[in-house]
């Protein structure tokens, strides 16, 4: 009987040790899957989801209106005014960075360059959208 108790105690210790190892490994795996550096494509996908539809509607309407077959120039004022007309708050557009569409439109096939005047220049801030590949 005493030998069986010692054997049972050793067996339970053995099982408990491996159960603890298993739990620790699972926690490390779970943590590793939850927190890790974000990849550029993941950031772009999340950014697309973060934009209200009105942002894309405004840029798309102005792209169609201004596209000459090679590029389109859209002033910041006209795109913000159109976003506001579609129901977005002007301050929120700037605060939430909804004008930072370069990565999203790059993924869609556009090169986007944003240009704003320096302290000694006088012109309207604008976006230039150029197709990655020339249209034929």
Key terms:
136 residues, alpha+beta, Aspartate Aminotransferase, domain 1, 2 domains, 3-stranded antiparallel β-sheet, 6 helices, elongated
Entry summary:
With 136 residues, the protein is of the alpha+beta class. 59% of the residues lie in helices and 12% in strands.
Number of strands: 3
Proportion in helices? 55-70%
Shape: elongated
CATH architecture assignment of the largest domain: Alpha-Beta Complex
Ends distance? 90 Å
- Percent of residues in β-strands: 5-15%
Structural domains: how many: 2
CATH class of the largest domain: Alpha Beta
Q: Could you please say which CATH topology of the largest domain applies here? A: Aspartate Aminotransferase, domain 1
User: What is the SS-derived class?
Assistant: alpha+beta
Q: Which sequence of strands runs across the widest sheet? A: 1-3-2
Order of helices and strands: HHHEHHHEE
Poorly predicted runs: none
Instruction: Work out the radius of gyration.
Output: 28 Å
Largest sheet entry = 3 strands, antiparallel
Mean pLDDT score, rounded? 82
Quickly count the helices: 6
Written description of the protein model:
This protein is 59% helix and 12% strand. The longest helix has 33 residues, at 2-34. The relative contact order is 0.11. It is elongated. It folds into 2 domains: 2-36; 42-131, Aspartate Aminotransferase, domain 1. The chain contains 6 helices and 3 strands; from the N terminus they run H-H-H-E-H-H-H-E-E. The model has no long low-confidence stretch (mean pLDDT 82). By secondary structure, the protein is of the alpha+beta class. Strands 1-3-2 form a 3-stranded antiparallel β-sheet.
């Amino acid at each position: 009987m005493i030998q069986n108790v010692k054997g049972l105690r050793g067996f339970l210790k053995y099982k408990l040790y491996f159960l603890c190892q298993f739990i620790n490994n699972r926690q490390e795996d779970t943590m590793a899957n939850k927190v890790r550096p974000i990849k550029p494509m993941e950031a772009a996908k999340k950014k697309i989801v973060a934009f209200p539809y009105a942002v894309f509607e405004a840029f798309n309407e102005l792209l169609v209106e201004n596209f000459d077959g090679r590029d389109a120039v859209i002033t910041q004022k006209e795109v913000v005014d159109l976003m506001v007309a579609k129901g977005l708050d002007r301050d929120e557009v700037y605060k939430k960075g909804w004008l930072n569409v370069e990565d999203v439109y790059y993924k869609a096939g556009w090169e986007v360059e944003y240009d704003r005047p320096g302290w000694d220049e006088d012109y309207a801030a604008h976006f230039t959208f150029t197709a990655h590949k020339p249209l034929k």
